[in-house]
Amino acid sequence: MKIAILVNESTMDRCIGKGCFNAFFKRIDAFRDYGPEVELMGFTHVGGDLEHKIEKLINNGVEVVHLSTCARAKYPDYEGLAHRLSEHFKVVGYTHGSEKGKSRDAIHLDKTHSVHNDNSL
Ligand code: SF4
Question: Domain 2-109 belongs to what architecture?
């Protein structure tokens, strides 16, 4: 299982990612259900050329994207971004701390991309 973490852009002005990495390496909080085989393939912010980043995550076989706890708290269109990401990945909407945020709870989305068969009825 390959995963990645996307965090809030402006938070990267000051944060070194300790909370995210601590939760990942200790397999706690949003990472508690992973075993030793999980691979962290990327850690980046949601700014810049996000479409290019998404393409790279796809090409590297990432299956699950964690939107960070700071993205949940600070990114204005957190839910819209989560839905956009769910077109390609399962989305877990936090990284460290509680699933319940001060202003909103963590979103969880399965990958929505699916094959539709219009002749199925
Ligand atoms: S979720 Fe926490 S540790 Fe991770 S980037 Fe945001 S502020 Fe830093």
Answer: 3-Layer(aba) Sandwich (3.40)
